[in-house]
Amino acid sequence: ETGVTQTPRHLVMGMTNKKSLKCEQHLGHNAMYWYKQSAKKPLELMFVYSLEERVENNSVPSRFSPECPNSSHLFLHLHTLQPEDSALYLCASSQESGTFYEQYFGPGTRLTVT
Amino acid sequence: KNQVEQSPQSLIILEGKNCTLQCNYTVSPFSNLRWYKQDTGRGPVSLTIMTFSENTKSNGRYTATLDADTKQSSLHITASQLSDSASYICVVRGGGADGLTFGKGTHLIIQP
Fold first, then answer.
1. What is the pLDDT of residues B23-49, one digit of tens each?
2. Which residues in chain A have Cβ-Cβ distances shorter than 8 Å to B105?
3. Do A105 and B44 meet the contact criterion of CB atoms below 8 Å apart?
């Protein structure tokens, strides 16, 4: 195990539902990330938090709303999603958000939007 | 535009055989290059990290090479095992706030 946990592991939701993904890291890291992984596409960085402040938002639709209450927890709130949002959502953490620090990934949440 | 291209897209080999996966990148400036292994249903796990000055780095049966002049890297797997079946992702760290450019990965299947 990498020290990064994600819940739930699988989620099926309708387009009108509201749900949240949770990520927790037990590594004492200061930076956390949300990635989207779609089939046959590279990982797409969605959000970066460093010391609980958002430092980057890669033009993600507003139907995805991140929350980082402390350096160990990261949430991704979902509402009125589209079928094309179905993907594997990966959380990662690193010691800092600089250029060299290795990222440790969680197992992901497999999201299906119906 | 920063890009990372991996080949082949998928590969099937017999258990015990060797294989080599390729990664070409156009990321600039270059900081480091990582190879990740991602098992089905799991998150990526780092295998190796290489900086500009490193040509070769090994991790057990995995050996990564880096040619910073031609901007190419390879991952060689020796004496493959069934547990090597996974996607292998090449990631190059360069400029930008987070600065990571991911390849699409090579899907490797080891057959008994």
1. 999 988 888 999 999 998 889 999 999
2. 42
3. yes
